[in-house]
Design brief:
The chain is of the alpha+beta class. It is built from four helices and five strands. It has a domain at about 50-160. Strand 2 and strand 3 form a beta hairpin.
């Protein structure tokens, strides 16, 4: 029978210290969010969705603008009556850079069927306050008034739809390419699944 002896603390201490200093084999803990990676595919899907939505909205907006412009031209030429527009004020307009002039915006009044209307005058020409301008106004829409030279030069045109048609074509191409790519991907994955890959 071996004699019972008390372990020497001086011999056990170095082993404990060496064990404490040795690095752990695996990571003790993972920092929150350290392993997160941006899903490029998801980001591309979101960006493409935003592009498609923007194009669709622009197509609708420009179609509405074109329809409204042609309507105003037709009403001025078909239903408009001559009026005398008196300019009350004009102020300069700045261009895109902010340093170049882009014409003038004038405000004034005119009388139609016993009523006085205060409206902006279309065009960019300058008129001194008090000047009178020959204009055309639509009785059913008093806000629709324009100088005679502008009305005579304007005509309803299909050209207002060129931009929305171009945007719509781009939208169709993008959507069509997405649909075609998905069909191609599905066809290529079916043989692989049949082979058990």
């Amino acid at each position: 029978m071996a004699p019972l002896t008390r372990p020497d603390p001086t011999k056990a201490a170095p082993d404990a210290a060496r064990t404490a200093q040795e690095p752990a084999e695996g990571p003790v803990s993972t920092l929150r969010g350290a392993g997160a990676r941006m899903d490029v595919h998801s980001v591309a899907k979101v960006a493409l969705g935003l592009v498609i939505a923007t194009l669709a909205v622009l197509v609708v907006v420009f179609v509405i603008v074109g329809v409204d412009k042609n309507r105003q031209v037709n009403e001025l030429r078909g239903q408009g009556v001559p009026v005398t527009f008196t300019v009350t004020s004009c102020h300069g307009l700045l261009g895109g850079s902010g340093s170049n002039g882009a014409g003038y915006a004038c405000q004034g009044t005119y009388r139609l069927r016993g009523h006085t209307y205060n409206e902006p005058l279309p065009g960019t020409a300058f008129f001194t306050p008090g000047a009178t301008v020959r204009a055309i106004a639509v009785p059913n829409d008093p806000g629709l008034v324009s100088p005679v030279p502008i009305v005579e030069s304007e005509h309803a045109s299909w050209k207002v739809y060129i931009l929305p048609v171009v945007l719509f074509a781009a939208l169709v191409l993008i959507v069509g390419s997405i649909v075609l790519r998905r069909r191609t991907t599905r066809r290529s994955t079916k043989p692989a699944q049949a082979r058990g890959v």
